[in-house]
Amino acid sequence: MAMKENTDMFPRARIPYGTWGSSFFPAWQTSALAEVNIAQFAGEAMNRILGIRKVPKSELEYLVIGSTIPWHYKFWNAPLVASCLGHRIPGFHMEQACATGLQAVMLAGADVQTGSHDVVGVLTFDRCSDSPVGVFPERRAHRRTEALSDVWDNFGFDPATGDAMITTAANSARKHNLDRREVEDLTLCRYQQYFEAKASGFLDRVLVPLEVLSVQGRFLGLVDDDVGVRELTLDGLRQMRELDTCVTTGTQTHAADGMATLLVTSPEKARELSPRPEIVIQFVGKAEIRNHPALMPESPTLAVQKLLEKTGLTMDDMAVVKSHNPFAVNDAIFAKVMNHDWEKVNKTGCSLVWGHPQGPTLTRIVIEGLEEAVALGGGFVLLSGCAAGDVGIAAIFKVTEGGES
After folding, report:
1. Where are the domains of the chain?
2. HEC secondary structure over 16-45
3. Exposed, middle or buried: residue 151 (CB in 10 Å: 0-12, 13-18, 19+)?
4. For residue 157, with 0-12 CB atoms within 10 Å meaning exposed, 13-18 middle and 19 or more buried, which class applies?
5. 3-state DSSP call for residue 275?
6. Nearest to residue 285, comparing CAs of 94, 104, 106, 66?
7. Contact (Cβ atoms closer than 8 angstroms) between residue 295 and residue 175
8. What's the CA gap between 307 and 203, in Å, rounded?
9. CA-CA distance, 358 to 126, in Å (whole number)?
10. How far apart are CA 76 and CA 378, in angstroms?
11. Which of 142, 194, 248, 384 has its CA at a distance of 20 to 30 angstroms from the CA of residue 285?
12. DSSP E strands: which ranges in 147-278?
């Protein structure tokens, strides 16, 4: 594939191939992850993954972590997680709802670009299982104390619009005159793509089985499967009750737990740390938009349009296209607006199928997308997703083989 050379968002930043990894994403309350502090687990898991990838943790200079659900000791954020990793380094915590996993990667790229650090670890995680419940003082409200709230309340209520997330999917489906049968056909295709990737061994390059230990070091369980992935049939999808326009329990994702990690480094460190230094992964560009109210699933498509306009690239330039799609409606809109075959999107799996822990979702999508591009011999990788507040985010990376020019 001919590669355009007109874009390079962070000329100094690279993602070293093969230094990444993700846990499996078990559905909420189906694994031992429901019983532990997810930040502690994530730090320990990153240590394990770096060991498997043969990257000395002493190389890490800084840590960018991302999560969306409060966890015990979150005030101490990245320094605490780094201590669980076993390497006392500074860092910070960020969150942007479901865009967290990609935004953390971009922030790490910016840090390397400024020359602040040469090796930045990105670690994203979340646990939807038993999310904490809070009571919030509201001194300017009619009630001095707001009602109990947890993550599920946020899924069901956007304070800016009063709508639930499922309503945004239905609104978007109606706006674009989507056909429920096509949305179900797309959904079945996504499941088939996942199972084909799993059978081929592709997911073994990305996902790492991880032990879950108690504070005392007692073995609680092994996270070694995307528990919650269903065996769906087209007839089964057709028979599901429509919750709202084009949305059934089969055409939306499920809450999950998990973590994902990768490194962002200088070119020199990428060559030193990668098992295949001839593979070069560069940052091309990023775009974000905020859509009209209650149209969240349409937002990633608008972000992609903005990004392609900024970079001068087209869909024909893309070797890999992957999306965070909490609703199958997301991908149906993208295909229709961009005139792009939806069978060519998410060819190795997606969050519609394997679940949505929020923080690490888009990080896993980044890793899968880059791994797929390497298998194809390189090319541009387009990644997109939606986030709370009708936000869309999109980014492009470039994968080449042959080393730095």
Report:
1. 21-129+207-228+254-273, 165-204+278-401
2. CCCCCEECCCCECCCCHHHHCCHHHHHHHH
3. buried
4. middle
5. coil
6. 106
7. yes
8. 28
9. 6
10. 39
11. 194
12. 210-213, 219-223, 257-265
Question: What is the CA 387 to chain-centroid distance, rounded?
Answer: 11
Over the chain (405 residues), what is each successive 10-residue block's mean pLDDT?
Answer: 62 97 97 93 97 98 96 94 96 97 98 98 95 76 64 85 95 98 98 98 97 87 96 97 98 98 98 98 98 97 98 98 98 98 97 97 98 98 97 98 83
Q: Distance between CA atoms of 209 and 97, rounded to whole angstroms?
A: 26
What dotted CATH number matches 21-129+207-228+254-273?
3.40.47.10
Question: Which residue, 312, 395, 341, is CA-closest to 3?
Answer: 312
In three-state secondary structure terms, 404 is coil
Q: What is the pLDDT of residue 2?
A: 42
Strand residue runs (E) in 128-192: none
Q: What percent of the chain has pLDDT over 90?
A: 87
Q: At 100, which helix (H) or strand (E)? A: helix 100-113
For tokens 């898991």, name the residue: 45
Domains 21-129+207-228+254-273 and 165-204+278-401 share a fold: yes
What's the per-residue H, E or C state across 212-226? EECCCCCEEEEECCC
pLDDT digits (tens, 9 = 90+) for 152-202: 788 888 988 999 999 999 999 999 999 999 999 999 999 999 999 999 999
Q: Any residues with CB less than 8 A from the CB of 307 and at least 6 apart, and which?
A: 285, 286, 287, 382, 394, 395, 396
Order of strands across the sheet that contains 318-323: 279-290, 391-401, 379-387, 318-323
> What does the buried/exposed string (b/e) look like for 299-327 if buried means 16 or more CB atoms within 10 Å of the residue's CB?
bbbbbbbbbbebbebeeebbbbbbbbbbb
Tell me the C-alpha distance between 231 and 254, whole Å. 14
